[in-house]
Amino acid sequence: MNASLYSIPPGVSLIPLLKFEPYIFSNGSHELPPYPVSDEDMYAFWVACLADSGIVGLQPITIRSWHVSIDQLTDDWILELFIRKYMASLPSEDDSVTETLDPDNNSALNGGYALCTGGDVPITPQCCSSLADISDWKMAAEYRGADNTMVWIGHPWVNVRFNGINLIFTGDDGLTLKPSPECVVTPDDLKRAVDQAYWEIESLAERLTPVIEKFAPEGRAVETARILAGLQPFDDSL
Fold first, then answer.
1. 88-99 burial by CB neighbour count: b if 16+ within 10 A, else e?
2. In the chain, what is the straight-line distance between the N-terminal and C-terminal CA atoms, in Å?
3. What phi and psi values does residue 68 have, to the nearest 5 degrees?
4. Which of 110, 135, 156, 209 lies deepest, with the highest CB count within 10 Å?
5. Prediction pTM value
6. What is the pLDDT of residues 181-236, one digit of tens each?
C-alpha cells in the first residue's frame, strides 16, 4: 500500500485536515484488528467504520492516519455530520448530547495541518491538534532564531530553527519526521503554504456557516463557524 493514499501536491504545501476518528462514526460492529496490525487491515477498519455513517471515498493524508484533507469534503452533509459528531463528543453535566454550539465555549475542530514537501509528508498532526494550529505555522514561517522553538502540532510537537537560509524542522519528544529526521523548507515557501492554508480554512468557515445556523445562537453562526475553522481568536495575527 502506498505511503499516502491522498494525492500530495508538488512543492511545499500545508494541507488543512479534519480528524475522522473511526470510533465516532462506527456503529460498534467492527473490532480493531489484533496486534500487530498491518497497514491494509488498519485502513480497512477505518474505511468500514466511516461507512457505517454513509461516508465512503475519503482518503487519509497518510497510511494509519485518521486525518482527511478538507478539500475532499465536497458534500455538505458530511460537514453537518462531522459537526453533529463533534457536538455529541462535547462534555455535558448529564451525559446528554449538546444541542447548541456556544461560541463562547467552543474551540477549533479536531484536525490540524500536514506539511508536505516534494511529494512526502514529513509532518502530520499529533494528539490534541486542531485547525487553530494555523497560528503556530504562521509563527514558524516568520521565525528567524538560531535556537529551536516549539511549533504546536499536538503532542509530540516539532521544533523549528533558522540557519540563515532555511527553516529546519525536527521532531521532539520521540516524534520522528519521515522520510528523514528533519524537514527543510525556505521561509518564502512556507509563507506561501500558510497563506494558501489560511484561504482554505476561510472557505471552510464560509461553507460551515449555513450548517452552523442550525446549532448556533441566533446571529452568531458566522462567528461560531470561524471559531470552529480555527480562525478566531487568531484573526488579528494572520
1. eeeeeeeeeebe
2. 38
3. -120, 135
4. 110
5. 0.92
6. 999 999 999 999 999 999 999 999 999 999 999 999 899 999 999 999 999 754 44
